[in-house]
Amino acid sequence: MRDGGKRVKDNLKRIEKSPCSVKITPVPEFITCPKCGGEIELWSDEDLTACLFCGHRVFKKEKIIH
User: Fold this and answer.
1) Does residue 5 lie in a domain region?
2) Total structural domains within the chain
3) What is d(CA 55, CA 6) in angstroms, rounded to the nearest whole number?
4) Which of 8, 16, 25, 34 is a good FRET partner for 55, with 20 to 30 A between their CA atoms?
5) In a domain, 11, yes or no
6) How far, in Å, CA of 58 to CA of 35, rounded?
7) How far apart, in whole angstroms, are the C-alpha atoms of residue 17 and residue 14?
8) By C-alpha distance, which of 36, 38, 63 is closest to 48?
């Protein structure tokens, strides 16, 4: 019976591994600043960035609007 319990625990360990534990490498996306027209680098794992030229803060959702 102890071996059966161990097998169950081993199976649970395998099942517990989440697909979310897989690391995804962020990638840059280059967008145009809606204020000054400068090129802004917005990474896929970021929701907010700032223009290096004018300091305007750009949200990921904002790039869709402009």
Assistant:
1) no
2) 1
3) 58
4) 25
5) no
6) 10
7) 6
8) 63
Domain that holds residue 55: 21-66
List, for residues 18-57, the tens digit of each pLDDT value. 666 667 889 999 989 989 999 999 998 998 999 999 999 9
Q: Which residue, chain included where needed, has tokens 């840059």? A: 28
Going by C-alpha positions, the residue among 31, 26, 61 that lies closest to residue 44 is 26
Amino acid symbol at 43: W
* 46 located within any domain: yes
- pTM for the whole thing? 0.53
Q: Structure tokens of 24? A: 């995804």
Task: Please indicate, yes or no, if residue 47 is contained in any of the structural domains.
Answer: yes
